[in-house]
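Homework-ish question, so no full write-ups if that breaks the rules, but can someone show me the predicted structure for this set?
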Amino acid sequence: MITATRHPELNAMFGFAERSLHSVRRYWVWEVVWLFYSMVSVLSIGFLASGLGTLGAAGGSFDLHRAQLYLLIGSLLWGYLSLVFMEAAFAIAWERWEGTIEYTFMAPIRRLTHLMGICLFAIGYGLVRTFVVLLVAIAMFNLDFSHANIGAALAVLGASTLPLIGLAIFTSVLPMVSPQKGEQMSFAVQGFLLLISGVYYPLTVLPLPLRLVGYASPLTYALDGIRKSLLDGAGLRAELPAIAILLGMGAVMIPGAVWVFSWAERRAKRLGLLKRSG
Amino acid sequence: MSTTAIEIQGVRKAFRRRERRAGAPWWRRDWKEKVALHELDLTVEAGGVTGILGPNGSGKSTLIRILATLLTPDSGRAMVFGWDVVAQPVDVRRHVNRVSVEASFFKELSPWENMLYAARLYGGGTSGTREQVSGILERLGLPLDTLDHPMKQLSRGQQQKVAIARSFLTAPSLLLMDEPTTGLDPRSKKEVQSMLEMLRAEREVTVLLCTHDMDEAAALCDRVLMMDNGRVLADGSAPELCREHGAATLEEVFMDLTGKTLEAEEEAEEVAT
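A: Not a homework solution, just the prediction itself:
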């Protein structure tokens, strides 16, 4: 019989993260492959910026170095953000594929604990992998962060964690709603966020309807705030509006996403979708 | 004084899906309903093994999944130790564990990593858990050197033993066993059955055992429910049922009730699928 711990919900939350960590250790070859893929993606964007010079973009008011940094920050952050919410989305799909979904959903824990455990790992894992890619990018492109305000950038990144958790939980609903197509739908959501969140370009280049949707994406404020701090050295005071918006979005999105997930779980139980074959 | 482990009142469950009728245009699909469980009333007192017998599609697994809080009944009420499976699922889950036909494990992780995950979900931690897991597995006759190998390297029989060990670890008051011996070789089947007997002898636990193995039910169950097409056709101990139907075996009781053999039912379903 199990010896009970003091904080069972926190313990269970850690259990989800620990399980994923064990899985990363067992699938280490695939982790190397994915890390390589992340590096290739970021480096390609870096070289794209370098290539703009040879295509005649340099000169005049165009600052090639700034453009390279702008794109690399976008690429790195996009790598991190997309990794976090795809990890969360795949957590449900993966359990269905492994055949453990019934066991996990039978556990005597709150659903919030389950989802937070998944997000806890996804954020930690995303940060570690992005940090490794960042080190490689710094080495390859001699990135200069001497004018950057790293502290303020980290504060924005920290604040962006809350709406990111909300987005991740929203995405994890998709494989619950549709066992067959949910995973692919997650890719569609990811692609749409890439389009509207100003990852590789400012929102001003988008047509008005897309621009308006872009303002509703928390990634827009995360990217904008982090760029201001890393490229222009914006301090914490200047970042306060972005941080406030991100925290406000998180305060709305997390409860909203948990509510939607609960709805999807009730629906899955009604329709009999909570099983390995869907 | 006896405690009621399971109380089910008028529980019904049907599954709906959209199907295209032959000759209908591709966009036109009608809802088709398949009743998995007709209005069911059932009370199971705490302790002992209750067997649910019936072919595939008889409603056994639907009943188990409702009690496991994985399915919501369309109507009626199901209670486990006084907790409502729909309104109080977390309270129900604290008392329940399930061993299903397919051992639900992360196949790439080791038995220990899977057990640790289960322990964490049920409020435990690393402290003393490895010793407990080793002890349980040793008693179940599983070599301890398998503890750190990936689950996928274990045979199906061994995986099922780990699944049972996992349910021992969480010490449930109600153990739902959904065809735990289906697909196992005779020796593994015997071992799993011995484990169930060992569990009964050692712990105050109520077991609901779904099976289509009539001999297994006769050997292990104090009470037997026979189901077909979502309805309970008979309820009693194996000797009682045999006596009532003038039959020598439960297989003959089933034939008397339904006019068909369980084996023929299984084969017909296999052909249909």
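Now go work out the reasoning yourself. Hint: The interface with chain B takes residues 1-5, 8, 11-12, 14-15, 18-19, 22-23, 26-27, 98-100, 102-110, 266, 269-272, 274-276 of chain A (CB under 8 Å).
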